What does this fold into?
Amino acid sequence: MLTKIAELLEEVKNYPINSAEALKDFHLKYLSKKGEISNLMPFIKEVAPEDRKTFGQKINELKNFAEDKFKNAQTEQEQAADAGAAAEFDLTLPIIPNELGTVHPLTLTRQRIIEIFERIGFNVEDGPEIEDDWHNFTALNFPPNHPAREMQDTFFIEKNPDILLRTHTSNVQIRLMERQKPPIRAIMPGRVFRNEAITARAHCIFHQVEGLYVDENVSLVDLKQTLFHFAKEMFGKDTKIRFRSSFFPFTEVSAEVDISCFICKGKGCNVCKQTGWVEILGCGMVDPNVLESCGIDSNRYTGFAFGMGIERIAMLKYNIRDLRLFTENDVRFLRQFANVV
Ligand code: PHE
It folds into this structure.
């Protein structure tokens, strides 16, 4: 029996493990449950009692040797595989920079405007860009012969002049008030269209954010404080505002709001055209006719509305001189906003 063990040991020693296959076969042949070493176990009973201890020890030695050989071969093969994989990568090569895009300045500005108003309780509302005459003009108290309806301002659909591209986001005011009764407090960002030649100061497609607050006892004071808060948050805490009376069909009273020029601090420069003030938006108290058009009792409710151009706010804030830069996709321009928060 001991000779058999010695033979097996010799066999194990000489077994060439030179591939993953051979490693598997080796395990199967010697170390598995039905392998040759396990097969020796039943013979212990047949050995004379005084020899059993030596017999057991010899089997153990054989088993340990086989296991060690198996483990060493296994580690060696694993290391070889790792080295092979590493060789495919040259870790000294320079990396290919992963170029991220940047947030567009108009997106950045819109997000900032939304954030300021959301914090004081305004919801964000949305509405259609292709609109009918009622929501864009009539319900907003535009008289039938108002110049804004004329061909040079508005893009109409030729086949149906009742359908047009909205000229302002005020259509969302109407849709919102038709759908929801006061209290209403919302801002409405969106794209608008006007039939204008593209220049440094005008474009036929631009963006607005409109605001609307309708409830009992809403007054001009609420409007002023809300816009004053906005101006300080957007342009800095020392910003002053002033109201100049103006006209919009859908508001009465109406005003345009200027902020103190934050570039020259009111001393006069070419951004504020030496006046110390720059215009940022239009606003007013919602005309009772507009409330009634939407089925809201104008004796019980009052409201204010305001509207601003996102391009204009962005141009002022980042001192951008030409509106066309926003749509030219010149990365030298766009990249400058990479780190602006
Ligand atoms: N809709 C106006 C415009 O496009 C802006 C505005 C909105 C003015 C709300 C007053 C109130 O010029």
About this structure: The first helix runs from residue 2 to 14. The CA atoms of residues 4 and 96 lie 63 Å apart. The chain has a mean pLDDT of 91.
